Glutathione S-transferase N-terminal domain-containing protein
Amino acid sequence: MTRTLYDLCGRDERLRFSPYCWRVRMSLAHKGLETHFKPWRFLQKDELAFADYDKVPVLCDGDKVVTDSFEIMRYLDAAYPEAPLLGEGVSYQRALFFKHFVERSVTPSLFRIVALDLLAAIHPDDRAYFRETREARFGCTLEAFHQPEQGRQALQKTLAPVRELLRETPFLDGEVPSGVDYLLFGSMMWAYCVSEQALAPPDDDVAHWFERMLAQYDGLAARAFTVRDLPAG
Amino acid sequence: MTRTLYDLCGRDERLRFSPYCWRVRMSLAHKGLETHFKPWRFLQKDELAFADYDKVPVLCDGDKVVTDSFEIMRYLDAAYPEAPLLGEGVSYQRALFFKHFVERSVTPSLFRIVALDLLAAIHPDDRAYFRETREARFGCTLEAFHQPEQGRQALQKTLAPVRELLRETPFLDGEVPSGVDYLLFGSMMWAYCVSEQALAPPDDDVAHWFERMLAQYDGLAARAFTVRDLPAG
């Protein structure tokens, strides 16, 4: 059976930084599912017409087409029940809260740290589209939105409960990583891929967790291509 | 079997506002466990000597003594497994994250809204102790810490993921309330008991959830005595 994930790429096709694609990539590795990652760019809407969707990730699992990263994680739990990502009942419900925590509280702070790095990482053909859609969402220019110091302070504060939890267990979901770890990791990997700067001081428990996450699945994320691997300029 | 919970009281013995006692009170109701709530004040440390502890809640369940609200919730799950509050495995782990979210992100914002209301609600004999311990923690006077508008803005932002979740289900833990609901409710009930002011605009999903929580267990929390029931002055 062919399994394909449409995966956002940047100005170099090897540069894959979408937070939503990263949470799915880690989830697929968690389930041990071999997958072909197909590079996709913002303006290639036609290529996703078959899925009746205009964003990635889109998963094609044999004949089955699934859109939206969280729906893909749910689908993987339903189709491959071993090693649950989100689980069911209250487990699922609490993971859903964590998804909203990441998307409403963590990702906006990260965006302030890397807004212009992100613009630079995107394919030149996609930049006008990216600028237009994001500036409409933020109500200001990307240049005005880019406030790394403010973003870092907000992130530090937002992650306080995560830091507290990591004093007790190596991963957010306990002794081994699972769905909730991938939700946060996806967003942090997004910033990690496009930025030259470290995200947290090296003695921070969150930074240590991030290192452990990079090392999972034989260093799947540690081996990822980042802007630091690009030739200068 | 006798079951007693030592429960913080204020300047009127009927005034019970501790966020940690409220999460346990709701948890006991969730388990259907009849309990005697024994009023306790900050300086009555001697009365807790038997528990080798100096704060409430303290639960005496027959011969068993359990301290710390979250430990009491764990104990209740272990001793009365029906209708889990926190659950086990990843369910538990995700509830533990939520506990830290409430204590590190929600409660500090609420404290800024009600710091002086809280001081006024406390028994006059306890106020010097309360002021001294809290001012040492905050590094400023209670008067300087009391910033209701700033607290309200921070709370609105912090609760964004909660609000998002409540668009999908009536309670944080799904169709019926459970441990995670009680963790947040305890802190909001704390502010509700000591303050004259509403916590959220009446059309907010969080406010609607709070109303539903007040109504649980035959209006257990709705019937609580608050400062609004005290004679003026």
The first helix of chain A runs from residue 19 to 30. The mean pLDDT of chain A is 95. Chain A has two domains: 3-79, 89-220.
